[in-house]
Amino acid sequence: MSEARVILPVILSGGSGSRLWPLSRESYPKQFWPLISERPMLEETALRAAGEAFHPPMVVCNEAHRFLVAEQLRAIPGARIVLEPVARNSAPAIAVAALLAEEAHGAETLLWLMAADAAIEDVPALHTALARAEEAAQTGLIVTFGMAPTAAETGYGYIEKGAALPDVAGVFRVARFIEKPDGPTAARLVLGGQHWWNSGMFVATAGTLIAELATHAPEVLAAARDAVAGATRDLDFVRLDPAAFKRAPSISIDYAVMERTEHAAVVPAAIGWSDLGSWASLWEVRPKDAAGNVTEGPVELVDAERCLIRSEGILTGVVGLKDAVIVVTDDAVLAMHRDSAQDVKKLVERLKSGGHAQATEHRRAYRPWGHYEGVIRGERFQVKRIVVRPGARLSLQKHFHRAEHWVVVSGTALVQRDAEQILLRENESVYLPLGCIHRMENPGMIPLVLIEVQSGSYLGEDDIVRFEDNYGRS
C-alpha cells in the first residue's frame, strides 16, 4: 500500500450498549469492557488498524467518556480523540470526522469507519476485504462490508447485492438496504442468497463523504462544519463547539446518506463478525464447554445447557437451566431466556422510568486519575474505596458540606492540606476538616488504594469547588 493510500481509521464510540445491561451502562458502555479477550473492545478495534498502512486512529466519543478512551488507547500512539458534547447518532460524527480528515490530510484521504464494539475473528481476511473496499472507494464510492448471514437474524439490517463492479473484483453495487426485518422476512432473505448483514463499517474518501452529505443531509454537514470551525483543543482532545453540534439532526449515516446515495457499494467479507448487540450474540461467539455453556467469573453449573453465565465477583450457582442468560454485577442481576435477549433494552427503559440509578450508572465511577466505588452509605456519612494511578493526582479542591478522613490501604499518598504537605504510607491516615483546601497525589510506582470516610450534611459529588486540575475539569 503506497503512502498516498494510507487509511485513516475512524472509530465511532458513542453507543451505550443497553442490550448488554447490567454490564454495559451509559457510564461505562460495552466498548470499554473485555468481552472477547483480555483487552477492552475499543483497544481490540484500534489494534485491527495498526501498522504502516494506517494513520493513527481518530476516535469520536461522548465527552463524558474522554478519559476512559484516552486511558484505553495509551498503547496506540498518536490517537486523536474528538468529543461529542451531545449524542447525535452516526451521521454527524462521520461528518465531523470527514471534515477533520480533509483539514489534516486532504480530500483524498481514505476513511475506514467502524464501530468500537464489534467482534471480528479473522483479521487477515478483514484486511483483504479492506484492500478491495479501498480500491473501490478511490473511484468515488462509499463501500460497506457485507457479512454472510448465518441465521435469520432480526437484529441486523440487510444489504441486497447489485451488479458486480467491472473494475474491482469482489465488489458489488448496492441494490437496496433493508432495515431490521421480521422473522419470516429475514428467513426469506437468508435463503435467497442475495443478501448480507450490514456490518456498519464503511470505506470512502473524505471528499466523497462530504459531497454526499452536502447532497443528502445538508443540515448535518452545516452543523458539523460549524462545530469543527468552533472547536478547541486541550490535552489530547478536540472539543467540538457545543451549540453548533447540538443543531445537527440526530440521524444515522444509513438514513442520512447510504439509503439515498447512488454511490453505495458492498464488499462481501467472511471475517467472523458480530456486533455483540445482545447477550445471545455474545454467547454465539464465545468458546463453550461440552454442554454448550459460556461462563465468566466465579460460576458453578449443575445440569445446565447452552447457558451464558457471567459474574463480576459474586459466586453464582446455576442448576438445571437451559438456554438461559444470567449476568451478575455488584449491584444488579439479569436473568432471562436467551431468546429474549433483544428485550433487555425494554427492561433498561423501564428501570430509567422508575428512577433506578442502576439503569445508567455503575457503582464504580471512573475518573482520569483512577476510580472510586461506594462501600456503604448511611445518614450523614458514606465510605468509599479510592484507587489512584501511579503519577496521577486529584484536583485541588474544597467542600462546603462535608469533612473527610483518608486511610491508606496500600501504596503512598502525598496529601496537600491547606499549607501542609503530608506523606502517608500504608495504615496511615489524615483528617480533612470541612472547608480545608486539599489534594491527593500518588507519587509511587504502584496504585494507591485508600478508604475515604465522608461525614456531613450533604454528600453529593457536586459539592466540589476546584481551584486547579490537571485534566481540564471545572
UniProtKB/TrEMBL annotation:
Occurrences of domain Mannose-6-phosphate isomerase type II C-terminal (ranges): 357-469
Example GO BP: GDP-mannose biosynthetic process
Gene Ontology molecular function: GTP binding; isomerase activity; mannose-1-phosphate guanylyltransferase (GTP) activity
Domain MannoseP isomerase/GMP-like beta-helix: residue ranges: 301-351
InterPro entries recorded: GMPP_N, Man1P_GuaTrfase/Man6P_Isoase, Man6P_isomerase-2_C, ManC/GMP-like_b-helix, Mannose-6P_isomerase_type2, NTP_transferase_dom, Nucleotide-diphossugar_trans, RmlC-like_jellyroll
Reaction it catalyzes: alpha-D-mannose 1-phosphate + GTP + H(+) = GDP-alpha-D-mannose + diphosphate
Start and end residues of each Nucleotidyl transferase domain: 9-290
E.C. code: 2.7.7.13
Key words of the record: GTP-binding, Isomerase, Nucleotide-binding, Nucleotidyltransferase, Transferase
Top EC class, one word: transferase
Database matches in Pfam families: ManC_GMP_beta-helix (PF22640), MannoseP_isomer (PF01050), NTP_transferase (PF00483)
Regions that span the bilayer: none
Family of this protein: Belongs to the mannose-6-phosphate isomerase type 2 family.
Protein's name according to its UniProt entry: mannose-1-phosphate guanylyltransferase
Species, as recorded: Plastoroseomonas arctica
Lineage of the species this protein comes from: Bacteria, Pseudomonadati, Pseudomonadota, Alphaproteobacteria, Acetobacterales
